Amino acid sequence: MIELCVLRERAGLRLDRYLALELPDFSRSRVQRLIDDGFVLLNEQPPRTRDLVRTGDRVRIEIPPLQQIEAAAEVIPLEIIFEDDDLLVLNKEAGMVVHPGAGNQEHTLVNALLHHCPTLSGIGGKERPGIVHRLDKETSGCLVVAKNDAAHRELSKQFAARTMQKIYLALVLGRLKKPSGIIDAPIARHPIHRQRMSIARLSRGRSAVTEYKVLRAGAELSLVECVLHSGRTHQIRVHLHHLGNPVAGDKLYAAKLARGLSRQMLHAWKLGFTHPRSDAWMNFEAPLPPDFTKALESLR
């Protein structure tokens, strides 16, 4: 645990900049991850990375153990949608963890990527080579991987600027009250259940916007298209839960589980972005996995 008191000469700085100066052994990206993951409190409240610190503010940082995992290449099949010298776009299968971490040090997407392409962007470190963004373990669909640092930096900028197109399909419990709409509700880590995220006041949460449209509705389930206008942890799952229609099979946010579903029915359906080298706009679509297709049959 580290506790800091902001001195006058540091007042007015963004929180992530302030912590990067106060903790020289920590990179700014690691500081940002600590803030995003709920390990930093500003005056006993969960902050945002862009919050400005004031003289006398108290900052408390809980440092989680940092595992140094050097991933090994493994022969694991990949469904590659597109590949060139700069990047890959994959259809990640449900059940596959994206990168090594506590409890998942092998059989991850990174292990498979290292066998397929030994030279990947190193910006993510030994644990996350090439990984620009993540999908939850149980979420399937489109994921882009950077083969070099230049591509990684450019793709990361597009994610940060929200210029990437990210469209998901979700099977949710029940019927939605409105056939379409926009959910504009800030998200923060749950104050008690640290594995969960929750809707929060803007003062302590991060802005999150999801546009949705019901494509099909049945007696027990509905198929919903979700367009992400931000990229918060568990965003679609939290927003749909907030509407009262959690993602079917979601063990974390659904009070009851739909019959016959062993995982959350969330699929990263379409992904669009500007190619980091050619500047050409590219669109990709990931086919639905068999279990999702089978679950859809109940809506016919």
- N→C terminal distance: 54 Å
Give the C-level CATH assignment of the largest domain. Alpha Beta
- Chain-averaged pLDDT: 89
- Content of β-strand: 25-35%
CATH architecture of the largest domain: 2-Layer Sandwich
CATH topology of the largest domain: Pseudouridine synthase
Order of helices and strands: EHHEEEEHEHEEEEEEHEEH
What is the CATH homologous superfamily assignment of the largest domain? Pseudouridine synthase
Uncertain segments: none
Count helical runs: 6
Please estimate the helix content.
10-25%
Total number of distinct structural domains:
3
Backbone structural class: alpha+beta
Radius of gyration: 20 Å
The major beta sheet can be summarized as:
9 strands, mixed
Let me know the number of strands. Answer: 14
Q: Can you tell me the overall shape?
A: globular
